[in-house]
Amino acid sequence: MASTNDLKNGMVLKLEGGQLWSVVEFQHVKPGKGPAFVRTKLKNVLSGKTVDKTFNAGVKVETATVDKRDMQFSYMDGEYFVFMDMQTYDQLHIERKTVGDAANFLVEGFEATVAQHEGEVLFVELPAAVELTVQETEPGVQGDRSTGGTKPATLETGHQIQVPLFITTGEKIKVDTRTSDYLGRVNS
User: Fold this and answer.
1) Taking every annotated instance into account, which residue ranges of this chain make up the domain Elongation factor P C-terminal (predicted)?
2) pLDDT value at residue 137
3) Which of 42, 55, 65, 102 could form a disulfide with 4 if both were Cys (CB 3.0 to 4.6 A apart)?
C-alpha cells in the first residue's frame, strides 16, 4: 500500500478488481477551495488503454511489485519469443501477443526489459531507438517527390517503414521503436 502523495511515474498500481495500471503522469492539485487531490494519467499494463483518474490527496492505493529485468532475445520457438536472463541464463518463452509491437524490432542478440508480476510476463520494453539493416528498398528516383521524399523499406525483421529516398538496401539505420520512424543513418 502507498499513499497518493507517494505516486511516481512508472509506479504500478492495482486497482478495480486487481487490474494493473502504470502511472504515466501525475499532478498534485491544491485548489483555493476544497480538499487537495491528485490528477493522474494511468495506462493499463495489459491492454495499453490510457485513462485519466483523480484521487483525493492522502488516499491509500494498492501497489503491485513489478520485476523488470534486462534480457536478451535469443530466438523464435514457433509462436514464442525466447529471452535469456543475462544474470541467471534462465530462458523465458513469451507469447507474440505479449511481446506486441516490439516484435517488429527484435533481432537475435537485442536486449530488452521484460516486466513480470507474480511470474506472469506483463510486457516487453525496447530501448527508444534500435539499429537495424535495410533488407530491401527500391532505388530512390530523384524526380519522384509525390511521397514527400520517402519510400517504403523492409527491415531485417520483416517490418516495413518509410525512409528517405537516399537510403539503399544493406544500409544500417536507426529506427524509433515507439513510432516506427526513421531517425537516421548509422555510421559504420
Assistant:
1) 130-185
2) 87
3) 55
CB 44 within 8 A of CB 12: no
- Report the amino acid identity of residue 162: Q
Q: From CA 81, how far away is CA 95, in angstroms rounded?
A: 6
What length does the chain have?
188
Quickly list H helices, 31-139. Answer: 96-99
For 107-154, the pLDDT digits (tens) are 898 899 888 888 888 888 888 888 999 999 888 666 655 556 788 899
Q: What is the pLDDT of residue 144?
A: 54
Contact call for residues 156 and 133 (beta carbons, < 8 A): yes
The pLDDT score that the predictor gives to residue 47 is 77
Distance CA 164, CA 78 (A): 34
- The strand ranges marked E within the chain are 2-3, 12-15, 19-29, 37-44, 50-56, 60-63, 67-77, 80-85, 91-95, 111-117, 120-125, 129-137, 150-155, 160-164, 172-176, 182-185
